[in-house]
Design a protein that fits this description.
With 253 residues, this protein is α/β, with parallel strands linked by helices. The protein has one domain: Rossmann fold (3-Layer(aba) Sandwich), CATH 3.40.50. 28% of the residues lie in helices and 27% in strands. The protein has a 9-stranded mixed sheet with strand order 9-8-7-10-6-1-4-5-11, with helices on both faces. Strand 8 and strand 9 form a beta hairpin. It is globular, with a radius of gyration of 21 Å. The N and C termini lie far apart (62 Å).
Length: 253
Amino acid sequence: MARVLVGVKRVIDYAVKIRVKPDKTGVVTDGVKHSMNPFDEIAVEEAVRLKEKKIANEIVAVSCGPAQAQETLRTALAMGVDRGIHVEVSGSEYETLQPIHVSKILAKLAQDEKADIVIVGKQAIDDDSNQTAQMTAAVLDWPQGTFASKIEKGDGEITIIREIDGGLETIKVKLPAVVSADLRLNEPRYATLPNIMKAKKKPIKKVTPKDLGIDTAPRIQVISVADPPTRQAGSVLPDVDTLVAKLKEGGHV
């Protein structure tokens, strides 16, 4: 039986229109609805399914962030996770927290918790880095299966079907391993009211990066954040000749 460690991140809700701060240092987060990163929901669902298939016997969710990250952990607990670990990072330290820091935190916790599988979402929808799984595997020196759209357990190994540009690739990795969840891996369940109530009683342990011996000094400096340029309005042309003339005019042909 395996122990699964799942990474969950609190991000601005996918349905919210993002606004850049006037000073261009980042995006507006105050008073904005946050929720669990959608790819992390898929990671949590997969971990719960592994437990339902009697492949996993315990699921531990980890979230790095300010006090509100506990709400994201409670959502994971309500979906079927057994316990949570809140790695408390707030203020300016959280603003500069990068995938390299998160991967070192996850790697340390994977060792401390004697995890067999680490599952995270393929990327977070706020920074779109798509780095944490890969770097966690590198820090641990474990095999990795990224962009997983199907996971099957074998004897001391897992078979992963992963989404690549050319289609699908099937790989076998020995446990312990790191997996990142892609969109088609599953359809996450909604937490039922009884499970939300049960989640309130499940334990969440609080630690800091310092407790884990992880240095969170920033490696990258964000110079500025800006809105993408607005697209120019298109125009309807009467015929192909006009289109070709327009393209020549714009230097496209």
